[in-house]
Amino acid sequence: MTRGGARAVAAAVAALTAIVTVPLLPGPAAAQIHGVRASGKVVIHGHGYGHGHGMSQYGAQGAGLAGKSYRRILHFYYPHTKLAEVGGPLRVLLSVGTSDVTVRPARRLRVRDLGDGKTWRVPTKARHARQWRIRPTLDRARVSSVQYRNASGWHRWNLPGHRKVLRGDGQFSAAGPVGLVLSDGSVRRYRGALRSASPYARATTRDVVNVVSFDQYIRGVLPAEMPSSWSAPALRAQAVAARSFAAWWRRAAGSRYWQVCDTTTCQVYAGVSAETKRTDAAVAATAGRILRYHGKPALTQFSASSGGWTSAGGLPYLPARADPWDDWAGNDYHSWRRRVGVASLENRYPGLGRLTAIRVSRREGHGMWGGRALRVVLRGSRDKVSLSGDDMRWALDLPSTWFSVDLTGARGG
């Protein structure tokens, strides 16, 4: 990914965070204060994994095992939304790409010049090509050459019509999936087109963008986000949630050269290599379906486990509510326990000195202990530090912000 692509991802994430900011709700009347013993160890008990907004993936599986349909699951986790259809292409920014879009020969491989729309069939067999690539011309913006590699090395292919370069961004497509050659020499296959995209008008580097249909995209997302062995209702609910989430990103992106990314910043997408028969069946059973709210794609956030309560996501269809399906025998994150050292906190905030107490001063107000921690105060021998619940979670590598400190389990540490 180029700097332009990285900056664009950061900007998109900032915009998403601003939209789903959770309002501070009153917590329990009494703040929870826990002294830290000289052992430097504390035991943390908690519930859930992830932010808790929207659908609990383990909860969806629990509901599926209880005989609930995917429509019932979606209605519970995203109230006030309605099923609708989506179509058209989706532009996916690939983090695994390099500035040169290099592909393996494929049946009916074609290259298209996005500058004027012209397309040419690539003569893979005639030139004994092992690889083909679109390489940007470093001294001219939006100009690239098409090259092939055979036993003697790389060569420029002069396009039919006495043209030597593409007049705009270019892309490869074929009769089936196209194999993208990664920087380490391995190959990852993608459906649709692989585009060499300029991140901004005068860029001389490129990002790799996979242009696919929504269902082609979801085929590579679903097995990366949920175990393919899970129940059909859970897989179908996840397919609709993931497709809706991508539709929301596409609408938010507007005319930007990419609309959704392939990492956990958006949702994980691994192309053809991730596809399975069971997840493909779930995609086909829900083909084109998304959730809409007031006629627009819903921001269908999801996380691994709600812990028994979903968390308010700042939107009418992302409420905080008790989740009856998250607690089942296969969910190790519904309730969890971690024994951690506080040295990581002392190292991260050296002004504290020796950590003497942890005070959870504000919670969201739902479930055990008053719910997820919103504000935590660390008191040390020299100073104190106020943190968000998320700061505390990342500092101690906890599954979620729904936690409580237990000193009794830390004795003898």
Protein traits:
alpha+beta; 4-stranded antiparallel beta sheet; 8 helices; 22% helix
Number of domains: 3
The percentage helix is 10-25%
How many E-type strands?
Answer: 25
Mean pLDDT: 89
Choose one word for the global shape.
globular
- Strands side by side in the biggest sheet: 8-7-12-15-16-5-17
The chain-level structural class is alpha+beta
C-alpha Rg, in Å? Answer: 25 Å
Q: How many angstroms separate the termini?
A: 45 Å
- Stretches where pLDDT is under 50 for at least 5 consecutive residues are 17-30, 409-413
Portion in beta strands? 25-35%
Largest β-sheet summary: 7 strands, mixed
Number of helices: 8
Structure description:
The protein has 413 residues and is an alpha+beta fold. The chain folds into 3 domains: 31-47 and 335-410, no CATH class; 55-88 and 219-303, no CATH class; 100-205, no CATH class. It is 22% helix and 28% strand. β23 and β24 (384-388) form a beta hairpin. α2 packs antiparallel against α5, α3 (70-77) crosses α5 and α5 crosses α6 (277-285).
Could you give the topology of this structure?
Elements: H1 3-19, E1 32-35, E2 41-46, E3 55-56, H2 57-65, H3 70-77, E4 82-85, E5 89-93, E6 101-103, E7 110-113, E8 119-121, E9 131-136, E10 144-150, E11 153-156, E12 170-173, E13 178-181, E14 187-190, E15 193-197, E16 207-213, H4 214-225, H5 232-253, E17 260-261, H6 277-285, E18 289-293, E19 296-297, E20 302-303, E21 336-341, H7 343-348, E22 355-363, E23 373-380, E24 384-388, H8 389-396, E25 403-406
Parallel strand pairs: 3-20, 5-17
Antiparallel strand pairs: 1-22, 2-21, 2-25, 4-18, 5-16, 6-9, 7-8, 7-12, 9-10, 10-11, 12-15, 13-14, 15-16, 18-19, 22-23, 23-24
Helix pairs in contact: 2-5, 3-5, 4-5, 4-6, 5-6
